[in-house]
Amino acid sequence: MQSSGGPRNSTPGTLPKLFFDAVAKYDKPDALQYKVNGTYQPIASRFLAERVRRAALGLAELGVNAGDRVAIFSENRPEWAIADYACVTSGLTDVPLYPNLPPEQAAYILRDSGAVAMFVSDAAQAAKIVAVRGKCPALKHVITFDAARHAGADHTLAEIEAMGATADTEARREAYRSAADRVKPDDVATLIYTSGTTGDPKGVMLTHDNLFSNVMASAACIPFTTNEIGLSFLPLSHIFERMAGHYLMFHVGCSIAYAESIDTVPIDMQTVRPTLVLSVPRLYEKMYARVLENALSGGAVKQRIFYWARRVAEQWADVTLAGGTPRGLLALKYRIAQKLVFSKLRTRTGARLRYFVSGGAPLAPEINKFFYAAGLVILEGYGLTETSPVIAVNTPTAFRIGTVGKPVPGSEVSIASDGEILTRGPHVMKGYYNKPEATADAIDAEGWFHTGDIGEIRDGYLAITDRKKDIIVTAGGKKIAPQPIESLIKTNKYVSQAVMLGDKRKFPVVLVVPNWEQLEKYGKKRGFLWTDRAQMLEMPLVREKMEKEVRKQLTGLANFEMPKKIALLEHDFSIERGELTPTLKVKRRVIDQTYQDVIDRLYATEPTGAEVG
């Protein structure tokens, strides 16, 4: 089975072309926005272009030349964009690092990429590099975004820009633009290291045209206006935010406002009042849980109003998604439901949001439908680092919940005989850096990239069912896709994390981390007494409560799919303990090893019906 987004809608291009064209076309007074003392300050397109040029000239003064690798180790901020554009317009290859990486993982990437220079956001990130700099022989320059030079930094960005300003003669400007024009579509623009759910991370070589073509294809799918505002909070080191929240938004003239931190997103959303928000499903899961909590923590009247409004909204969504137009009594009731319940959710987003876009992991259809019924559209898409990233995406005119949309222009999608999703087109990476064997394993002789995901095509729409390597095959030969089941469990407000296991075992089990805020509220309400969380999890009434909450999410599963035992874990999974990737994907092998004793106890006895282990 095969589907295609049709021919690509642009000739091959480069990121310098994208940048200079956007600066000339839009000339925006607020191309970027950042918060200073609680207030957002704008950076104009022309001033941004000047800083990019001077940073590029300053790097050249340091002896950093076209083809060299330059790392960026920072949270989202204007300086990240300046550093990136300075690199790509100079023919440098930049290497973004997740800001939450520990020193040893950062050192591996610096060493593997051979980065000769790196940008760090502040003293905290510089301190990580100090600890491992002796293991990075190629690294010559550490440049901080802080105003003053601190321990671990050789230069400040301001000093680099000042060096560039001194060299910013007319002749050097012309040489800089000529060099930018000489960058070729097939040149490697960036090395993005995969999160590494198994083994060491691999450096994905994405060319200028990989990213350029994906920007153009995505821009053709989603309608943009000239006065869009996007809120940037996903790490710019992640390909989803890099392509869509950085290059794509700049290309369409969207003003990009940087959230102060991931913790301030709810406040920043109401301050910025964005029209577009890109996120991974975790944000939508948390918003959904908060809405349920607010509704169910009220009195009986408030609860009845909420459940009535949700039923009405779902009826409205069913009609609309089927291509109809709700009329008469249903339309009237929906307007009332919006006013009484859902308008409050819209207000929390800033009240002018046009679209959410979701990527990076599967979004539970139940959550997607809830937001759609509430009048907030989530356009779910799909892709990988190796595909720049977008392979397919739902659009306002081709929208189907439970799928990731149709392939974007230029993207071909095929389903292999074992169900694996294959794709080819201008979005597919050049290969893995210094890993020809891994590249050959991933891209076959016909140019098809093997995604490792399992899926199917329904009426031209791509649906993802699971990761190929995550499929559970029980001892009895039954195949179980764990991700949809985990997504169902996580829609419960008492659940923070859920991981299903059971490969080569007699039956599946699930490890559950409670949402402690909700569970502790429940315990206090019922007068439970506990000194720590481990003690609370031993309480029979608490275990019974969590058992009930998990089980009620799993209606409609086949008997062999139903987890036969449940274990409750005290701590959330973490990046620091190696249980999550920097993009918050679960490392199942690590979970299996870390909690081996817990898992073995679950299998020590035969299941006796529903139980918590």
Describe it for me?
With 613 residues, the protein is of the alpha/beta class. Among the domains are: 45-183, 3-Layer(aba) Sandwich (Rossmann fold); 471-602, GMP Synthetase, Chain A, domain 3 (2-Layer Sandwich). The protein is built from 21 helices and 27 strands. Strands 3-2-12-11-13-14-15-16-17 form a 9-stranded mixed sheet, sandwiched between helices. Strands 1-18-19-21-22 form a 5-stranded antiparallel sheet. Strand 21 (449-458) and strand 22 form a beta hairpin. The radius of gyration is 25 Å and the shape is globular.
Strand order of the largest sheet: 3-2-12-11-13-14-15-16-17
What ranges have pLDDT less than 50 throughout 5 or more consecutive residues?
none
Oligomeric state, counting identical vs distinct chains: single chain
Fold-level CATH name of one domain: Rossmann fold
**What is the arithmetic mean of pLDDT?**
93
Distance between the termini: 42 Å
Radius of gyration, whole Å:
25 Å
The helix fraction, in percent, is: 40-55%
What is the number of beta strands? 27
CATH structural class of one domain: Alpha Beta
- What CATH architecture of one domain would you give? 3-Layer(aba) Sandwich
Global geometry: globular
Based on secondary structure, the structural category is alpha/beta
Content of β-strand: 15-25%
Q: Strand count, sense and closure of the main sheet?
A: 9 strands, mixed
Count of helical regions? 21
